[in-house]
Design brief:
It is built from 17 helices and 12 strands. The protein is an alpha/beta fold and 406 residues long.
Length: 406
C-alpha cells in the first residue's frame, strides 16, 4: 500500500492551532490592548460571542498564545461543554492552571491546596484536584482570593515570574441553565476588581452563543456591565483570500484565480466552511495545482462532510424525502445577505412553480418543527435559519445537482 505523503494545512475538525491562525487582525488588536492593564494588576473581562462556525474557540486560543508568549502569562483554555455547575468549573480551572504551569511554579501553587493536588498521567502529564464538597463550598465565595494567591505563587512579583493569568471559559451553554453562574461570576468579578485591584493580573474570557449571552444578562442585569464585548462575524473576502493563499502555499501548491474565487464564494465567510473546503480541495488535487475542477469537486465533498457532521442527521431524519429535495435545492439559489440569513414565505415562493407552493408550505412547517428554521415574524411569515450553515449547505446541494453528482 502506498500512502499519500501530503500533509494538510487545514483543521476542519477542531479549533485551529494558534500557529496557523489567520485574519481578524482588528479584533486581535482590540482584545490585546487590555494586556498591559492586566500585567499591571488590573483585571479585565471579555465576552466573545458569535454564531456557530464563526471561529470563537480558535480566536480565543490565539489570544491565549499571545498572552503566554508575549506577556508571559499562565494561559489556560477550558472547553466546558457539559459543565453545568460552579463546583465543577472551579475544580476544572484549578486543575488546568496546575497542569499548564511550569514545574518550578507548579509545586508552589499545589501547596496552596495541601495534599489535594494529585498527578494523573494519561496521554500526557495532568493533575487532579481531589476537593471535597466542603472544600469547594469554601472556595466558591473566595475564588477571587484563590486566583490572586495562585498568580502570586507563580512569581507575579518576581523578576522571572509569571505576569498574569489568562483564562478562557469556552462553550458555557450548560452554565446558563440557572442564574447561579451569572450571580456567582458577578460577585467574583466585583471582589477581584475592588479588593484586589492593582494586584490582580487576571484576564477572564467567556465565549458563547449570542442567545446564551442574552440569557445570562436576563438572569443578572448587572452581569452585562462587567465585560468588554466582542462579536465575531463572517470573514471578509480579503481575509478568506489570504487564508487560502497562505495555506496552499505552505503546501507548495499553486492556486488558480478562478478556483480561488469559487472557494471564496462557497466559503460564505464562515471559518468552519473555509477549513472544510480547504481540506476537501487539498485532497482532491493530484498535481499540486488547484484548478476550478479541483475546487468544485472539493466544495461538493466539503458539503457532504458539513452535512454529515452538523446538519444532515436533522435534515434527513426530519425534512428530507423525495418530495422536499427540489425545495431544498431551490433554497441554494437564494441570495442570503451576510449576517441576515432570513427569508419570507412570499420572497421564496417566487422561485417555485404553482404546484410546488403547497409542498413548500409543508416543508416550512416540517423544517420549523425540526428546528432547522424558526419564525421571526408570524404576521409577515418571515423565518431565519437556526444554524447559518444551512443556507450554505443548500447552496452546495444546488451546485452538486448542476454537476450531476447527486
Amino acid at each position: 500500500m502506498v500512502f499519500d505523503s501530503k500533509k494538510t494545512p487545514f483543521e476542519p475538525d477542531r479549533s485551529v492551532n494558534p500557529n496557523n491562525f489567520k485574519g481578524r487582525e482588528d479584533k486581535v488588536l482590540e482584545a490585546t490592548r487590555y494586556f498591559k492593564q492586566v500585567v499591571n494588576g488590573t483585571p479585565q473581562y471579555l465576552f466573545i460571542t458569535g454564531q456557530r462556525g464563526f471561529g470563537k474557540s480558535s480566536f480565543a486560543r490565539y489570544l491565549g498564545k499571545i498572552a503566554a508568549k508575549k506577556c508571559n502569562m499562565v494561559s489556560v483554555h477550558l472547553y466546558l461543554h457539559g459543565t453545568s455547575n460552579i463546583d465543577t468549573l472551579i475544580k476544572n480551572i484549578i486543575e488546568k492552571i496546575v497542569s499548564e504551569t511550569e514545574e518550578n511554579w507548579r509545586d508552589k501553587i499545589s501547596r496552596l491546596f495541601g495534599d489535594k493536588i494529585k498527578s494523573a498521567t494519561l496521554g500526557g502529564l495532568s493533575f487532579e484536584f481531589n476537593a471535597s464538597k466542603e472544600d469547594l463550598d469554601s472556595l466558591k465565595p473566595n475564588f477571587a482570593n484563590v486566583l490572586v494567591n495562585i498568580i502570586n505563587k507563580a512569581g507575579y512579583n518576581e523578576d522571572n515570574g509569571k505576569k498574569g493569568l489568562f483564562i478562557v471559559l469556552d462553550d458555557i451553554n450548560g452554565l446558563t441553565n440557572t442564574p447561579d453562574f451569572a450571580n456567582w461570576y458577578k460577585s467574583f468579578a466585583d471582589t477581584l476588581s475592588t479588593d484586589f485591584d492593582g494586584n490582580a493580573p487576571i484576564y477572564m474570557v467567556i465565549s458563547g452563543l449570542p442567545e446564551k449571552q442574552h440569557k445570562l444578562f436576563d438572569q443578572n442585569e448587572s452581569f452585562s456591565r462587567i465585560f468588554h464585548y466582542m462579536e465575531l462575524g463572517k470573514l471578509n473576502e480579503k481575509e478568506i483570500e489570504d487564508f487560502y493563499y497562505s495555506s496552499f502555499t505552505k503546501s507548495t501548491m499553486q492556486l488558480d484565480k478562478t478556483a480561488l474565487d469559487t472557494m471564496i464564494n462557497y466559503s460564505s465567510g464562515f471559518p468552519t466552511m473555509m477549513q472544510q473546503i480547504g481540506e476537501s480541495v487539498f485532497w482532491e488535487d493530484d498535481d499540486y495545482y488547484i484548478d476550478e475542477n479541483d475546487a468544485l469537486k472539493g466544495i461538493i465533498e466539503a458539503g457532504n462532510q458539513i452535512g454529515q457532521k452538523y446538519l444532515r442527521p436533522i435534515i434527513e431524519s426530519q425534512i428530507t424525502n423525495e418530495e422536499y429535495i427540489p425545495i431544498i435545492k431551490k433554497f441554494g439559489k437564494h441570495k442570503f445577505h451576510i449576517g441576515m440569513d432570513e427569508f419570507t414565505e412570499n420572497e421564496m415562493s417566487v422561485d417555485f412553480e404553482e404546484q410546488e407552493i403547497v409542498t413548500f408550505k409543508r416543508f416550512l412547517s416540517r423544517a420549523e418543527k425540526a428546528g432547522v428554521i424558526e419564525s421571526v415574524d408570524f404576521k409577515k411569515c418571515s423565518y431565519k435559519f437556526t444554524n447559518n450553515l444551512y443556507p450554505v449547505y443548500f447552496k452546495i446541494l444546488k451546485l452538486k445537482n448542476e454537476y450531476k453528482m447527486l
